[in-house]
Amino acid sequence: MSATDPSERHDPGEFGEVRIAPSLLSADFGMLAEQVGEVEAASDWLHVDVMDGHFVPNVTIGPPVVASLRRHSRLFFDCHLMMTDPGRYLKDFAAAGADGCTVHVEIGGTDALVAQMRELGLRAGLALNPDTPFEAVQPYLSDLDLLLCMTVFPGFGGQEFIAEVMDKVAQARRVVDAGSLALDIEVDGGIDAATAPLAASAGANVFVAGSAVFGQERPWEAAEGIRSAVQEAGTKVADRSVRSDDSRLRK
User: Fold this and answer.
1) What is the mean pLDDT of residues 43-59?
2) What is the pLDDT of residues 139-197, one digit of tens each?
């Protein structure tokens, strides 16, 4: 595969804006295109869960499925690579139509992976597991577009939200605000209309929801319900947007 021209990437929106990102892990794999189509109008991003059976004890999808879905959707594809060796596959995901990729800080080699994503025209994200300290990701924040704070241990959908992770979300928000960083803070795991406002209050602005969306009879309404819950909670996440073109260019 040859990498997609960066100019063909899909717009992620302004840094700091509220975004709802349904998680493909909880969709019906027998009708992925139809499921994505059902939530497209109510969603901002599509969260693509990639598992290698090594970093996490499960196997999901790879670049061919991303390429197939790309033909059916204009959503920003937010690919979460739960892999021991993501660098081996970044080029393939870029060519398949991924707009951003997120790798885990726990595997090491973060600087090289971020550089590789930049070279491929991908938005660069870094994830940390619930038991990984915030200090592990803090040195990289100014080089990233996205910080993903896992609110469950990765590998399987349908787990319960780990509220203690909100302390790390709040730490990240303080650093982002203090440094006026162009960085989105994403939460993934157990996110629904009850927990999304808690995460938003702590400082998150991107909300990945799997079973709370695709597990519902009318998934598009479920996605809108999560958005409404964040807004009705009185959180003003959108006010945190970093709108300076300079902040984007410096990356």
Assistant:
1) 95
2) 999 999 999 999 999 887 778 999 999 999 999 999 999 999 999 999 999 999 999 99
Task: Name the DSSP class of 211.
Answer: H
- What single letter denotes the amino acid at residue 196? A
Q: pTM (2 decimals)?
A: 0.91
Question: Please, which residues have CB within 8 angstroms of residue 174's CB and are 6 or more apart in sequence?
Answer: 203
3-state secondary structure of 21: strand
d(CA 142, CA 92): 26
Which residue segment(s) compose the domain that 222 sits in?
6-249
CATH number at residue 92: 3.20.20.70
Distance CA(71)–CA(92), nearest Å, equals 16
Q: How many domains does the chain fold into? A: 1
DSSP assignment of 100-127: EEEEEGGGS-HHHHHHHHHHTTPEEEEE
Catalytic residues: 49, 188
